[in-house]
Write a structure and sequence with these properties.
Structural class: alpha/beta
Order of helices and strands: EHHEEHHEEHEHEHHEEHEHEH
Helix content: 40-55%
Distance between the termini: 50 Å
Strand content: 15-25%
Number of strands: 11
Shape: elongated
Strand order of the largest sheet: 8-7-9-10-6-11
Number of helices: 11
């Protein structure tokens, strides 16, 4: 048995680290098979030497996170535990200020790489499974760029491609039919901007949320353009969208290359662009994986199950 200790930065960080009713502490004790306690202004860890070393590393990462953000979710604890078990860092510091004291932060190394790419490149392409924050982080970067007056417009775009259900069976006119396809972009935007301000920006065309088909023929200067669900564009549609870029504009293209809903035999514009454009100057390509999923922990296991196992007949 061995014992080590870590200095406690302040009482608030300690409360965040241990969690409400010590829920984080209990998870750490069970997962790491060590005893963890707090006394005399320090966190004490006791157990087998290897387990103590691992627990110390986990606690140092979690404490740094709690000190920086003032809170620690159970998902953050799970991610750090998984990352340390795999021998990698887990809590990057990349953060995006979206105004009003709100901040969106990268929660995995892959997401931090994505944020860095969007900051440095004029065109960023990101492929990854559901729940990895592709859309959410891109919208946050767009809102931050608008707030900092780096751009004058935000253009949020999605292809209206059917995924097993027909648009013809949805009630209403064309706008009502395409609204469900644009809803994820609107939901992300609402989390980062006051409702009244968002509505005013939409009325003044400072923010546009539109189907891909509406982009044809336009040239957009000083705009932050996001193409979501890009795996469902054709090669021609992708070329059309990318060539809308005007002076001072940025483009982020994101999608999940494992969920293409195009007709059989049609090449995905995102898959094609990742091969065709990734080596061009000013272009960044980022691939997120199941380890970057930040939804319910079950989502990661679902993605792994679909990616790693052959389909079984019932």
């Amino acid at each position: 048995m061995t014992e080590t200790s870590i200095a406690v930065v302040d009482s608030r960080a300690l409360v965040a680290l241990f969690g409400t009713c010590d829920q984080h502490l209990r998870k750490l004790r069970k997962s790491l098979e060590v005893e963890i306690s707090s006394r005399d202004g320090r966190i004490h860890v006791e157990g087998e030497p290897e387990a103590v070393a691992k627990a110390t590393h986990v606690l140092e990462q979690l404490q740094a996170h709690a000190q920086q953000y003032g809170r620690l979710a159970i998902e953050d604890v799970d991610r750090v535990l998984a990352a340390v078990a795999e021998g990698r860092e887990a809590l990057p510091s990349a953060a995006i200020g979206v105004g009003g004291g709100r901040e969106v932060r990268a929660r995995t190394p892959g997401q931090a790489k994505y944020v860095k790419a969007m900051r440095g490149a004029d065109l960023t392409m990101c492929a990854g499974p559901a729940g990895t924050g592709k859309t959410y982080l891109a919208v946050a970067m767009a809102v931050a760029a608008l707030r900092e007056q780096q751009v004058r417009k935000i253009i949020l775009v999605r292809p209206a491609v059917e995924a097993g259900e027909s648009l013809g069976f949805l009630p209403g006119d064309l706008q009502a039919k395409i609204n469900p396809y644009l809803r994820p972009l609107l939901d992300a935007l609402r989390e980062m901007m006051d409702y009244d301000l968002m509505k005013r920006y939409q009325e003044e065309d400072i923010i546009e949320i539109i189907p891909l088909a509406y982009m044809r023929g336009r040239t957009l200067n000083q705009a932050f353009m996001i193409l979501d669900e890009a795996q469902n564009t054709t090669v021609a549609q992708m070329k059309m969208f990318l060539t809308r870029m005007g002076e001072g504009s940025k483009i982020v293209v994101s999608g999940d290359t494992t969920q293409v809903d195009l007709p059989h035999g049609t090449r995905s514009g995102l898959i094609d662009a990742l091969v065709r454009l990734r080596k061009l100057k000013g272009v960044a390509a980022v691939k997120l994986t199941a380890s970057d999923i930040v939804r319910h922990p079950l989502v990661q296991r679902i993605v792994d199950a679909y990616d790693g196992r052959p389909k079984q007949r019932p």
